[in-house]
Amino acid sequence: MSVQYQITGSAATEIAASVESGVRSGHLAPGRTLPPVRRLAAELGVAPGTVASAYRRLRERGVVETGGRAGTFVRQRSAFTPTGTLTVPAGVHDLVSGEPDTALLPDLGSLKPHVEIPPGNYRDGGPCPDLLDLARDRFAADGVHGELTVTSGALDAFERGLAARLEPGDTVAVEEPTWANGRDLLLSAGYQVAPVAIDGDGPVAAELDAVLASGARAFILTSRGQNPTGAAVSAERAAALRAVIAAHPGVFVVEDDHWAELSRTPLHFVADAAEHWMFVRSVSKPYGPDLRTALVAADPDTKARVQGRMALGHGWVSRILQHFVIAAWTDDDVAAAVRHAGAVYAERQAALREALAARGIDVWGRSGLNLWVPVADETAAVVSLRDSGYAVAPGRGFSFRGAQAIRVSTARLDPAHAPAVAEAIAYASGPAAPPV
């Protein structure tokens, strides 16, 4: 515990608010261990149950987590954690960010002359009909049908869809390891999360069945380019997942296809096996994060709830942004740039995957921007790789089960450097168990 910050309060709500204040100000940094319940209770002069209740509130809000003997500690990310720009030291290669290579993004500026800027009014706000028509054709080509709407990116869609179908405190099944931003959003919104193990073909059907049988009311999966592993749902796995979902009436399924236009692997659609479902395709990875737009297909009731609630709030996604997406989707040069980017990303990921395999390290990744490498000690591996000139992400931020691993982003990796990176990883990883 830092001597610069003292937790205060005599009621559970006050103690929780004090911890949140410390996290928000940065005095309680991510990873910082909080005092044991009985010790803090003695310091504050309250009953241990009061502190336990405060810690439970903090866990439910996604501020802290409990790691068995490690105690209760501040999460790496929460709604209260200060955020900043990721900085990679000079001379260290960026294999940590997991973001698209900006050099491979289309030049949106070149689209300005082709972007229609409609006159603004409240009456005509909402999804642009021309964009929905284009999306309907694109989705249909992948076997996706449903009612369409537009949200401000994938996370906005997830939050709105879950709010339309669930209550705070409900349990959501998510992939293990999982996309940290999505998990942290769920926790901050008051949902419980239950991990479902994945392998290279996607979520394991038997694990999903067990989690849904235990009471999970929703399931979020990634079609392709899963973060952090690079897994993609295969045809066989999709069929198995659909069978499990059909056996659990009432589950709400959200499918994330962020890698869509960049993917070299086909889509094997899962979500509409449920009565209520949502399929989300954001434009950030292929076209640029600043577009902040996602196209959503859903069952009629879910689509109506999502769009209706949006109409009562901020109304709609900027029609200017929507028209930029229309321009991008109808421009031959942009389409060629996206195809090129997809091929480059696939080459970069494959180069490292194959270099690792040559050194006896097998990984799952077949699409996306990342590879997941099990290691004996992730902290030691991260430090060793940093000393070798490579920045990677520790697995702890992506795993519920404390898996010892590192996430290696291949987004900016020169394939010629893959053997050297693989050699450094092999040296740093030590003996480790294969992926679960």
UniProtKB/TrEMBL annotation:
Gene3D superfamilies listed in its UniProt record: Type I PLP-dependent aspartate aminotransferase-like (Major domain), Winged helix-like DNA-binding domain superfamily/Winged helix DNA-binding domain
Keyword annotations: Aminotransferase, DNA-binding, Pyridoxal phosphate, Transcription, Transcription regulation, Transferase
Top-rank taxon, per record: Bacteria
Domain HTH gntR-type residues, every copy: 9-77
UniProt xrefs under InterPro entries: Aminotransferase_I/II_large, HTH_trans_reg/aminotransferase, PyrdxlP-dep_Trfase, PyrdxlP-dep_Trfase_major, Tscrpt_reg_HTH_GntR, WH-like_DNA-bd_sf, WH_DNA-bd_sf
PROSITE patterns hit by this protein: HTH_GNTR
A Pfam family assignment: Aminotran_1_2
Sequence similarity: In the C-terminal section; belongs to the class-I pyridoxal-phosphate-dependent aminotransferase family.
Protein name as catalogued: Aminotransferase class I/II-fold pyridoxal phosphate-dependent enzyme
Organism, scientific name: Glycomyces endophyticus
